[in-house]
Amino acid sequence: MSTQKYTLQITSGMLSGKIFPVDKGTLNLGRSSTCDIAIKDLLLSRTHCRFEIRDSKLFVIDLASANETVVNGKPVDEQELHHDDLVEVGSTTLRVLCETADGPPIETHGEPDDIMIDLGFNKSDEESGDSRKSFLRPVIWSVAAILILLLGATFIMRPGNGNEAKTAVEKEERSENLLIRYEKIEADTNNIFRYSLALSPAGLLSAEIDDIAGDRHIKKEQQLSAGIIQDLTRIIRNSGFFGLEEKYTGYASMPNTLNQWRITVALGNQVHCCTVRDRLEPEIFRSLRETLETFSKNELGIWAIQYSAEKLVELAVEAKTVGDKKAAEMNVRHSNLFDAIKSYKAALFYLDTVNPKPDFYAALAATTEKCEMELEKRYAEQRFKADRAINLQEWADAARELKILREIIPEQSDPRHGEAVRKLLDVEGRL
Asked: Cis peptide before 358, with omega less than 30 degrees from 0?
């Protein structure tokens, strides 16, 4: 029996031309540097999708990405792949190449070995035609060489040509220069919170947080690659930002408070600044603001610290409330306990940089640990039931137990979920 060998060839995007063999069973793709295929693309999630071999078949699994995984033009959650299938993730397209280990190599379409240009001199007499072509070939090459020399001389002697070409290149390079300054201020009589983001012409991204009441003063920097900057440039150019008015001012919802956002962008020869104060943001402004905030979170790892301590506590309380509800209903749905832990961890994450910690922090940490132990216990018991049914070849029971196991760990990126799915596919094939 022949074995399938799979290769992923990137046909468009930042890594165009690169080839990745799927020789270890799985390949993760995403923006994170820990991924097997790491692509610094703003449109990708940190871990966007996974390529996985099961029973000599290749599958792609979308890992709950923000911008979906597309196979042959159709968004998928999980899809078996075949030779010549096209997988689109962000601005990257991958072509699936498949061959058998003991079979012939995959067919490639290269350039023809010999290209014949018919100049109209062929005759029916082959010998005469060959003689004529042999005679004309050096004549044609001599004429072509003379023409090339004449054209080259004309180009070199043209006044100012070198300077014009250099100027055009410099203008194109300048048009790609991108400078950004974003500032958010939330202030009242008890605190002033300021978050600022800046991108320099040299590609240095920096963020600063000043939280007076929380006594937090943080600054982070990261050098960006040219590809990331090009992606951000394209997003801003197509955002409609340069068509916004300079100011959108409203009235504070409460006395002695201020909520203000300001975005300044210089792109090529365009410069624009827009300020929104104490009112709902225009949709174009809001969209770009959220893009910049998400961008800084991904690049600098500052998902929490860009908010004031008061806001972080508020977010933590909301996450804890969701977690409490899920935990109270852990016997209603198999996935509720997993979801409760996920909400509790989000609450703990929000409070990571908050000092002093709120009163409920210790109880929250203890509850999270208790729920994790309960989840591990339930998972182990359910896995035992599934494995026992498989060993007894009770395939219908095994399928049922594995489906429950899959629901207990619903997160597709969790290895425990992947193991349950692989076993379930095998069992269903035996029914």
From this structure: no
Tokens representing 390?
């498989």
For residues 199 and 205, is the Cβ–Cβ distance under 8 A? yes
Residue 72 neighbours by CB distance under 10 Å: 13
Residue 56 is which amino acid?
Answer: S
Q: Give the C-alpha separation, 72 to 87, whole Å.
A: 6
Distance CA 105, CA 192 (A): 65
Sheet holding 270-277, edge to edge: 216-223, 204-211, 192-199, 178-187, 258-267, 270-277, 247-249
Please state, in angstroms and rounded to a whole number, the distance separating the CA atoms of residues 400 and 421: 12
Three-state DSSP state, 81:
strand
| Phi, psi angles (nearest 5°) of residue 183 | -140, 135
Residue 306's pLDDT band (cuts 50, 70, 90): low
Q: Is beta strand 247-249 parallel, antiparallel or unpaired with respect to 216-223?
A: unpaired
> How far is Cα 177 from Cα 186, in angstroms, rounded to an integer?
31
Q: Is residue 248 helix, strand or coil?
A: strand
Residue 153: predicted pLDDT: 55
The residue type of 238 is: N
Check whether the bond before 75 is cis (ω within 30° of 0): no
pLDDT over 70 for what percent of the chain?
Answer: 80
Per residue in 34-45, pLDDT tens? 888 999 887 888
pTM (predicted TM-score): 0.43
Spatial neighbors of 163 by CB under 8 A, at least 6 apart, are none
Q: CB under 8 Å to 30, separation ≥6 — which residues?
A: 37, 38, 39, 44, 45, 46, 47, 48, 49, 63
pLDDT band at 116 (very low <50, low <70, confident <90, very high): very low
Highest mean pLDDT pick, 52-66, 90-104, 293-307: 52-66
- Which residues, in sequence order, are bridge partners of residue 205? 199, 222
Three-state SS across 143-172? HHHHHHHHHHHHHHHCCCHHHHHHHHHHHH
Between CA 291 and CA 42 the distance in angstroms is: 9
Give whole-number Cα distances, 421 to 186, 404, 405, in Å. 47, 11, 9
Structure tokens at 214: 């929380």
C-alpha angle 191/192/198, rounded to 5°? 155
Give the Å distances, CA to CA, from 371 to 165, 330, 374. Answer: 67, 10, 5
